[in-house]
Amino acid sequence: MKIAVLGGGNGSFAAAGDFALSGHEVRLWRRDTDQVAAHRAAGSRSLVKDHNGRHDVKLALVTTDIADAVRGVELILCPAPAFAQMDIARLLAPHLRDGQVVFLPPATFGSMIFAQAARDAGNAAKASFAETGTLPWLTRKHGPFEVAITIRAKRLPVGVLPLDQAPHALEVIGRAFPDVIEPCGDALSGALMNAGPIIHPPLIVMNAGPIEHFERWDIHKEGTQAAIRRVTDALDAERIAVREALGYGAPHFPLAHHYAREGEIWMYGRGSHDRLTDSGDWRERIVLTEHRYMREDLRLGLSLLVSVAGLAGVDTPLAKAFLSIGGAICGEDFARGGRTLETLGLGKLGKAELQTLLRNGF
């Protein structure tokens, strides 16, 4: 199938390389003119490294022109960080066509941002938007056009906006991710599967000392201790309580299953935590005030969770606490400046009105 991948980070290069490796026609769009020129000069080729070795793949197109990238494709995959979504959504909005599916893995309710951008652009195309709970690859770039894939997702719970277009959207996404996609309802359900705002805020806040002391620190190895895991489970319980209060059923994909050696298989499958730490790719330099763990997962992800919890009538003391501490670290008010139903223009909607919008779209 024809797939457009938007962005130039770890996830985008993993997606482009892995899709090409699977035989799809892949077009990669990114805004960095110099990097696009260099990639083209290298023959639009990428190197994918996984447990099966090294794979040299060729992309059909590498471009800074988003219209060229998405013209005639069935699937548009955008794994860019949530704080980049607004700009990308505005650039993409005029070019969407009937039947196209925009997949955001994960998104922090970014599907709503992309749908709003299409509406604001006056584009009435019958496109659909979907999001899931994690990036489909545990991955890191090892060079400008080289990416290492440690693990591919085994289960991806996917929510769709509008929900009435879910059968088509899930069929298209399923051809790119065979035997992995699991419907979880509407886009807000998909957003409330996002693991990043649960796993990363405790790891960076409770490891703030060693993160700032050492040149590089692996939050998933030395940083994942029993005390932090207990906090992570309690924070995840707040997320699940919000899901249940809104009427979303199981499976809720509790993060504890990511670490478990038995029981229900989580999104990355069994033993993924050990493979992640064994790879060494997550021993990295983290600048707390700048890293996406803070700017995306904590600032945007937890502010969304707290906001939706308010609508659902659920108390989220830990999420609020991490928002306060993260904001103090960065000298900002994350509760006011994050991603909330109000900042998304949905603050005046009641629960029933929001559910109608999620089902029918704009």
What can you tell me about this protein's structure?
There is one protein chain. The chain has 362 residues and is an alpha/beta fold. The protein has 2 domains: 2-192, NAD(P)-binding Rossmann-like Domain (Rossmann fold); 195-360, Orthogonal Bundle (N-(1-d-carboxylethyl)-l-norvaline Dehydrogenase, domain 2). It is built from 16 helices and 12 strands. It has helices at 10-21, 33-41, 66-70, 85-92, 110-120, 166-176, 187-191, 196-205, 208-213, 226-245, 256-259, 272-279, 292-312, 317-330, 334-337, 351-360; strands at residues 2-6, 25-29, 45-50, 53-58, 61-63, 75-77, 101-104, 128-132, 137-143, 146-152, 156-161, 181-186. It has an 8-stranded mixed sheet, with helices on both faces. A 4-stranded mixed sheet has the order 4-3-10-9. Helix 6 links the parallel strand 11 (156-161) and strand 12 (181-186). The protein is globular. The mean pLDDT is 96.
CATH class division of the largest domain: Alpha Beta
Name the strands of the widest sheet in spatial order.
Answer: 5-2-1-6-7-8-11-12
Shape, per Cα inertia axes: globular
Number of domain modules: 2
In CATH, the architecture of the largest domain is 3-Layer(aba) Sandwich
Please state the CA-atom Rg, rounded to the nearest Å: 19 Å
Number of helices: 16
Which regions have little confidence, pLDDT < 50, spanning 5+ residues?
none
Distance N to C terminus:
28 Å
Order of helices and strands: EHEHEEEHEHEHEEEEHEHHHHHHHHHH
Pfam families: NAD_Gly3P_dh_N (PF01210), Octopine_DH (PF02317)
GO biological process, one term: glycerol-3-phosphate catabolic process
GO molecular function, one term: oxidoreductase activity, acting on the CH-OH group of donors, NAD or NADP as acceptor
Protein name: Opine dehydrogenase
